């Protein structure tokens, strides 16, 4: 009898053992015994052919319906077509050339057999080309040995491959099955008896050669417990070892940089953020390394309704249209870009009513730069304003300074002198339709002032320090007030007769240079009125003031905070490193962190705060001098915070005392890379990984309890709804035609759309792969003979350049269509994105280059071509590019795959939910966990052969309790030698190192 570690070559022979090793990673007797059947077929049972997965190797039990030989190539070639049936569907088999003779004799109508092959599609029919088969109803004299091999009531169907059919694996298992008697049982006897589990030897015999369905159930229950328990013992020992690692406890320090930061920026955390902060700081305060996943976007309140207005260099745009990279005007008159857009769902909205009658809406947490008599400006929330609105004498206590006037330009023509435009509007008798043309409203300060002068000189009358225009039509009155406020002045509308208004105007003095001094003009906050619930969002602005100009040229303030954990570690004397996947994201993080911290990020520098620290950036493209200084700041401890890319992992990078590693978008990094950075601490640093969409292995480790999880789920809920639908382009081509109609409808409604393709389509990726021209001889003849089916090769993925051309000349003709892909020059990419964000393009045909960091709220439609070529998480990320503004989003998943295919099931799952965590679970169910204790991500043989993370959570949880108790009592497992053997088999040296790394 062979031992379980005996090489299969000695038992089965070199040829069979080589196939099992190379194709199925089975090397020893034990490996083969643990290669379990994936299902069982009963004699006489006909597998549902309607459920066959496309492009997968399958084994089916079915009955021959008919068989015929056909000629092709003018009679030079012949093929055998066999049709199988099971009542639910039909499957075609095809054999070519000399290979038709044996199946032509054996596969007669009425015969039942087991067939193995890869499912493909030809002429819209499922087929197996040249499948292997085993007859199940032979006469005893016609291959009695083969018949008896399948004489059991339940026939095991093994995970197989093209080179080794299921029944051949079954024969190999028969050869090693007696060795099951030598299997070492890892489960403690008390646990096995307490859970009523059968012994391991019995389980192995029943799983491979069951006598009944009850045998299969008993075997599965036992083998699942084996995997769950041994795995949980490994993780429990790792947790115990982690708890004993001498990590430095990073406890919160009073009056440090964190407190200074909080005091500097008035800020109210959401309930979710308060909970997550407590979890993180509790972990940091322990003397063993934190290992926590933070799922969700980190942000805070201070939001405005989506229809509130934000001043840009081209005029006001709705808050709902703000995108990362949008230029906005800050109170000092400078421009800055939006570096964060954060939908906040629906919130209670309040209206600030100002002394000139203008008003602006916001949520209760919104921040305002306000002043009161005898003090400088302060930053207060709406809640604080309405709680302390009036002075003791009943007068308004707070006022808001006017914004510095800025030049605007919407690109419109201004053919007339602006002063003449003002004169004409002020002196034509006051038509109700009178408006100041947009080109003059969105003009330079000088031109806007000229329009106002023209209006006032013709229609105005002096009234003390003010000028009054009486009988002004409503539209023109509003425009005049708008212009005056844009110049830093005050304009108050008072109702007159017949719907007209009197407009009281006070303009700032104009210096001889034509500049404007508006320091004396402020508007008092008269009232704060409750409006009700509205959809809102907030933005962060990349400027030291963290402020922007909103409705009626009102100055507002906005800050996003994602620093508190790092600042807490700096307070405790440690350093924090943030690892970002790209230079662009690293630079963005560094910029926003330094701007939010202000003088607190200038520790040791002139003007820096006493509690401050240095914040440095480290990327691969930095100049030598800057890089040298950054490395020096890290090794000396001058820099408390470093933000960087993979450059942080290099050997030359040394830290003074690395206390916390924060990994952004953790699915973009391998475990090896994260561990390389963690290894730079004198003692193991704490680890915080952040992601919006967990990957399957992360979900698996979460379920296994090796990764603590915090979830922030408040922000994404505020986005507009996204309707997702699968478009079966091949089965129902009119659905695809309707998809393009929907894109045109969205554009006609003033919106924009994306079309995403898997491939660029330029010459570089058109090159044929692996093909050789001029095939000749026998191989060439064979290829020619197989030509009808081989001609139906898989087409390449749809390409951006091809689809863009087809759309521009066809379904989307007349629309402004542009392309975007990774091989474009950086300047060209920037120009296309700028044009799209500015609304100068209708449809962007792109690769997945738009997956992350592209934010155009006006884009409401997305069509993903060949959607089945993308993974679940990638589809979810792509879909997130629409529905970011006030209008609902539409995502159409186009596929030519058959309805019964796994790919279509995956697309239906994506269309069915917007929950990123739920999609990760779906992805995990379909792709499996990968090697949970090894480096494989997914699609590779898992160390879990019977257990599935999603379906067996209860077993895993119970096994965790049992394993934790056992390891606590006996960490070295001295009383459980069989368990130690099983653990060694599970954790080879490579996997044990991997588990050590996290």
TrEMBL record:
GO terms for molecular function: helicase activity. InterPro entries: DEAD/DEAH_box_helicase_dom, Helicase_ATP-bd, Helicase_C-like, Hint_dom_N, Hint_dom_sf, Homing_endonucl, NA-bd_OB-fold, NA-bd_OB_tRNA. The keyword DNA-binding applies. Residues 735-925 form the Helicase C-terminal domain. Residues 759-796 are annotated as: Disordered. Residues 782-796 have a biased composition (Basic and acidic residues). Residues 539-712 form the Helicase ATP-binding domain. Keywords: ATP-binding, DNA damage, DNA repair, DNA-binding, Helicase, Hydrolase, Nucleotide-binding. This is Helicase-related protein. The lineage of its organism: Bacteria, Bacillati, Actinomycetota, Actinomycetes, Kitasatosporales.
